[in-house]
Write a structure and sequence with these properties.
two-stranded antiparallel sheet, alpha+beta, 7-stranded antiparallel β-sheet, 2 domains, about 325 residues
């Protein structure tokens, strides 16, 4: 027998392999704990403030399941009175436990239930609508600032421009988009510090992903409101996306309304979309209504407009 036991079998038996398995490669440790340097990529949403339900992940898909569930507003939705939430009745802590336990079966099950649904009860996480401002011609845009209130869900856009102001001087504009209480109404409020002549707002469909289903599901890819509103009038105008609109563009992929004159420094627009279930294809029955609510003095114009509307709106089975 040699004095030193150099046999590899007995040598290995004296080592504790459980302890050896816990020794990690130092390169892996450094890679796991070191700072990750990421060069920021400039993308099309640069500078847009994103809330909890951010438009980017709603449009491009969330980066992982956890963010998808958080974006669904599932933090508090399981407490909805009456249990009539359209989201799965699962508390958020349960979801994070499932993620920690890698219980993909349960997570898949509630993902299937909530796939095409969005939170209605807690609106403030969802921006009402982002607004894209397009400089036209040689007009100058400056001091552009867009903010989203988590409390009310309003998106407020402030900017200064000399576009279409009555004297061609820089005018401060404030544009607010917010949802009314019944969720089907998107309100746009525009204020300026001098009388407006003409302003154009364009709402792109990706920015309205969270609105209820019948809204903007028809063939039109964008709803363009182009307006110069008369003072002291109340208008109800139907926008058709399938037939050419008499009031605006002839292209059925967009609809626009043009009015003549505006001498007020603020206006409010309501876009109401209702869907009638009476026809076989609900696509043909989608309507949008534009209400400009002002002090009503000239009843004649209201009556004339209602007669013009009657063919499309009042006979279509909903009012």
């Amino acid at each position: 027998m040699p004095a030193l036991n150099l046999d590899y079998r007995t040598a290995t038996r004296t080592l504790d392999w459980r302890k050896l398995n816990k020794i990690e490669d130092p390169r892996e440790v450094i890679a796991r704990h070191d700072w990750k340097i990421e060069e920021p990529q400039l993308n099309w949403l640069e500078g847009v403030p994103l809330g909890n339900g951010d438009m980017a992940s709603m449009y491009f898909g969330a980066p992982n399941r956890m963010m998808w569930l958080i974006n669904k507003g599932d933090l508090w939705d399981h407490r909805v009175p009456g249990g009539d939430s359209n989201l799965p009745q699962v508390p958020f802590r349960q979801i994070s436990n499932w993620i920690a336990e890698k219980d993909w079966k349960s997570i898949n099950k509630i993902e299937e239930r909530g796939k095409n649904l969005t939170p209605r009860h807690y609106l403030s996480f969802q921006p009402a609508a982002w607004v894209i401002l397009e400089p036209i011609g040689e007009s100058s845009f400056s001091n552009y600032k867009q903010s989203h209130s988590m409390l009310t869900g309003e998106v407020t856009t402030n900017w200064t421009s000399d576009f279409m102001a009555s004297p061609l001087a820089p005018t401060k504009y404030e544009l607010q988009t917010f949802l009314a209480a019944d969720q089907n109404v998107l309100r746009i409020r525009i204020e300026a510090d001098r009388p407006l002549r003409n302003i154009r707002a364009r709402l792109l469909r990706p920015h309205l992903q969270h609105l209820p289903d019948p809204i903007f599901r028809h063939r039109g890819t964008l709803l363009e409101l182009q307006y110069t509103f008369p003072d002291n009038l109340f208008y109800v105008v139907g926008l058709e996306s399938d037939i050419p609109s008499r009031l605006g563009s002839q292209d059925n992929s967009e609809a626009s309304i043009i009015f003549d004159d505006l001498d007020d420094t603020s206006l409010e627009v309501r876009v109401v979309v209702a869907c009638s279930e009476t026809t076989s294809s609900p696509e043909d029955r989608v309507r949008a209504t534009l209400n400009v609510e002002k002090p009503q003095r000239y009843r004649g114009a209201i009556r004339r407009n209602q007669q013009a509307m009657e063919k499309y709106w009042y006979r279509s089975g909903f009012s």
